[in-house]
Design brief:
Elements (H helix, E strand, L loop, with lengths): L1 E7 L8 E6 L1 E4 L2 E4 L5 E4 L4 E2 L5 E3 L6 E5 L5 E6 L7 E2 L2 E2 L13 E8 L3 E6 L4 E2 L3 E5 L7 E2 L5 H13 L8 E3 L5 E5 L16 H10 L7 E4 L13 E10 L3 E8 L3 E8 L2 H10 L3 E6 L8 E7 L5 H15 L12 H4 L20 H7 L21 E4 L3 E6 L3
Parallel strand pairs: 1-26
Antiparallel strand pairs: 1-8, 2-7, 2-9, 3-4, 5-6, 5-8, 9-12, 10-11, 12-13, 13-25, 14-18, 15-16, 15-26, 17-18, 19-20, 20-21, 21-22, 22-23, 23-24
């Protein structure tokens, strides 16, 4: 059990609300909750808080007693009570791409273990309310989401809206004309992503104009109880990565699997989406070794968490951050990319061309320790998660933008 305290520094939101939404999964066609049930109790004698129900912070005395620490889900902070969609009668996340919904809301992500909650702030899918959090748990840094400057924080909504020319598809305004939410390129196709800057010029410069070598050279740490050799710890090195506008072909070698290949048929717009969404589908094969027979699988993707997903992660993070083809990092192995400081990526790497994820770059101007796109934790210096131990306090602050 731990405590969540709320503080409101926002002049735009006079009466904040909080809503817990437990993670769900679909098993055999049935939606069910993931992990232990929500056990949150509001202050002021409100008692147990229900999953998917909104409570004003004033009503609960700005305090929640929270447990267990391995609860999985999202905690929304909003300017009004939320009406959430459902799946199999269970509440699920807000449909943030629905522009007719003009509420302001942002959430924290909760996961963890039996003894410590892991919490992070994410602006991957949209930006609405800037949040900051701090923990009394002893750790290297006890705060996340503190802005680098008030000027950068204040400029954030208009900066993000400007990435699509303030399109009505990606920007949500309330009846007063206030900008309340900007929808990110990670919201996907077909309506949102094409409005954001394309990676086509970047891809052309690397694969067509100069056919550069992409130095993916790194280590994969493996998983517990690996079901096959591609899930075991090993080093990997890409010897060639080519793209002709139709198919991405990656060849390399693994210290465990021998020579390998990865192929992904995709036209330019699809490759563009792959970098923004950070998920790549591909076929893989490897030659094997004396102890490991050759193998192939036509259904690999970045979510597999094997050595091939690590290769795809390095490639996509390399384009999103701007490492690939850059003067500073273009010749360095991808293991060196991971050591880059959080303040020296995106436009700091590629000042001459917008060869990076523009959404993540814009938010990085104000924050260094939040999620802006799925591979923020690719950098060793980026630690978006904050730990909260049993008996400690997490303070969540609505910032004034």
């Amino acid at each position: 059990m731990y405590t969540i305290n709320f503080a409101n520094s926002s002049t735009a939101i006079a009466s904040p609300w909080v809503t817990f939404v437990q993670a769900t999964e679909v098993v055999s066609g049935t939606t069910q909750l993931v992990g232990p049930a929500l056990a949150a109790t509001g202050g002021n004698g409100v008692g147990a808080l229900a999953n998917g129900t909104s409570y004003s912070l004033a009503a609960i005395g700005n305090t929640v007693s929270m447990g267990p620490t391995d609860w999985q889900g999202h905690m929304y902070v909003s300017d009004s009570a939320l009406t959430l969609p459902t799946s199999g009668s269970l509440p699920v996340d807000a449909a943030y791409t629905i522009t007719s919904d003009t509420a302001r809301y942002q959430y924290l992500e909760f996961a963890g273990s039996a003894t410590s909650a892991n919490v992070d702030i994410t602006y991957i899918n949209w930006y609405s309310i800037p949040l900051q959090m701090s923990s009394t748990t002893a750790q290297a840094s006890q705060t996340r989401g503190a802005p680098l400057s008030q000027a950068a924080l204040s400029a954030m909504p208009q900066t993000l809206a400007g990435l699509t020319g303030s399109s009505s598809v990606t920007t949500v305004k309330n009846s007063s004309g206030d900008l309340v939410r900007v929808i990110s390129p990670n919201a996907g196709n077909p309506s949102w992503l094409p409005l954001y800057a394309s990676f086509q010029n970047y891809l052309t410069s690397v694969f067509i104009d100069s056919a550069q070598t992409i130095p993916i050279d790194n280590s994969y740490s493996g998983i517990g109880n690996p079901p096959s050799p591609d899930f075991q710890p090993q080093d990997y090195q890409v010897t060639s990565a080519t793209y002709n506008g139709q198919t991405l072909a990656i060849k390399g070698t693994s210290s465990l699997l021998g020579d390998f290949t990865m192929t992904s048929p995709m036209v330019w717009p699809r490759f563009n989406a792959v970098i923004y969404l950070a998920v790549m589908n591909y076929a893989w094969s490897y030659s094997g070794s004396q102890s490991i027979p050759a193998a192939s699988n036509a259904n690999g993707n970045t979510g597999d968490n094997n050595v091939f997903s690590a290769v795809s992660r390095d490639l996509m993070a390399g384009f999103a951050y701007g490492f690939v083809g850059s003067v500073q990092y273009g010749a360095q192995p991808s293991s060196a990319w991971m050591a880059a400081p959080t303040t020296e990526v995106f436009s700091a790497i590629q000042p001459a061309n917008a060869y990076y994820n523009p959404w993540a770059n814009a938010i990085a101007a104000a924050f260094t320790d939040v999620y802006t796109f799925p591979f923020n934790d690719f950098l060793a210096s980026a630690v978006p998660e904050l730990g909260v131990n049993d008996g400690d306090t997490l303070t969540v602050t609505l910032l004034n933008a």
